[in-house]
Amino acid sequence: MVTAAPPAVPFLDLRQVNAAHADELKAAAARVIDAGRYVLGEELSAFEEEFAAWCGVRHAIGVGNGLDAMALILRAYIELGVLQEGDEVIVPSNTFIASFLAVSANRLVPVPVEPDDDTFNIDPVRVEAAIGPRTRAIMAVHLYGRLADMQALGGIARRYGLLLIEDAAQAHGAACRGRKAGSFGDAAGFSFYPGKNLGALGDGGAVTTDDDILAATVRALRNYGSAEKYRHARKGINSRLDELQAALLRVKLRYLDAENAARQGIATVYREAIVHPAIRTPVEGTPGGHVWHLFVVRSARRDALMAHLAGAGVRTLVHYPVPPHRQGAYPELAGLSLPLTERMHDEVLSLPMAPNLGGGQVERVIDACLSFPVP
Ligand SMILES: *Cc1c(COP(=O)(O)O)cnc(C)c1O
């Protein structure tokens, strides 16, 4: 008799993630449908207050997505005369391309800087070396959910008079000494793309900041440049977090601490159990400083490892296969040589990671890794 193979371990089963809160999500959706107000209403105001309080900042402004959150921060600084077209923004060379796109969308110049090889996050020593006469800002990305070295970057930003902006799209809740991602820089952008640690059931994003003037500017820019109906002080855009997503996010925010803790527990098990000469597991974060949006291992034989895991019914992904400076969108950066970054993109592999990954699934991932043949 042939026994059926057990179902594959999915990379991330969003249906299941949201099924855990289905009753509350459906009640929240019903509340919005019945209220009859779908844009810029009470759900958004309530979510903005709750998310700001949770992050420990004065302001959160809901926007359409994470890319817009980052782009609107930079746009607001241009509107306020703090940044000017052609200014340089230091960005990590190994980030998701949205970090770069936010910079170039504002006719600012992204200057890629290589990461620390162990943490995947931008290297403060290299940041300082990259500062030139047109450098005006540093964009820190808390890649994979791990806080960048905000203390070192904050020191550099202060010494050189630069803005420090966080791309916190992967790091909701990552904390250091009681401070959370989104509260370290002058401003931060979050994404609520469904697969993020705090995920909507569609697109969404937010800007956080303690700066009242910046907050008011972003608030106007996301709504046609209008602070008052039919009065347009600036050439804004339409990028608002809608009532339905805000209501759903209010539900999911209440479970985020527990879900991040579950991710941290899975990461600890993975790190302790996956001991293999051809697989490098990520270094431990400072306690609470990593919320494990992704659990990224490295292997010189990455493609073979990926195929081996797939054969064992374990679905993995690569974040990211091609670095921004090698993308068709950035021919002007194609000449750069960024060896650490290029090697990382050849070696990284993201294992299944989700708050609701069961013990049996975690064990299957581990067993599949341990059975990867050593040549
Ligand atoms: C997801 C992500 C973004 C973009 O967020 P969207 O909501 O998809 O626009 C930006 N930066 C990083 C690091 C991300 O992971």
CATH C-level of the largest domain? Alpha Beta
Total beta-strand segments: 11
Order of helices and strands: HHHEHEHEHEHEEEEEHHEHHEH
What's the helical proportion of residues? 25-40%
Bound molecules: pyridoxal-5'-phosphate
Strand order of the largest sheet: 1-9-8-5-4-2-3
Strand content: 5-15%
Low-confidence stretches: none
Q: What's the number of helices?
A: 12
What is the overall shape? globular
Structural class: alpha/beta
Active site: 196
Keywords: Aminotransferase, Coiled coil, Pyridoxal phosphate, Transferase
Organism: Luteibacter yeojuensis
Protein name: DegT/DnrJ/EryC1/StrS family aminotransferase
Give the arrangement of secondary structure elements.
Blueprint: H1 14-19, H2 22-35, H3 42-55, E1 59-63, H4 66-79, E2 88-92, H5 97-104, E3 109-113, H6 124-130, E4 135-141, H7 150-160, E5 163-167, E6 175-176, E7 179-180, E8 187-191, E9 205-209, H8 212-221, H9 243-273, E10 295-298, H10 302-311, H11 339-347, E11 348-351, H12 359-370
Parallel strand pairs: 2-3, 2-4, 4-5, 5-8
Antiparallel strand pairs: 1-9, 6-7, 8-9, 10-11
Helix pairs in contact: 2-9, 3-9, 4-5, 4-8
Tag the structure with descriptive keywords.
375 residues; alpha/beta; Aspartate Aminotransferase, domain 2; Aspartate Aminotransferase, domain 1; 2 domains; 39% helix; binds pyridoxal-5'-phosphate; transferase; PyrdxlP-dep_Trfase; PyrdxlP-dep_Trfase_small
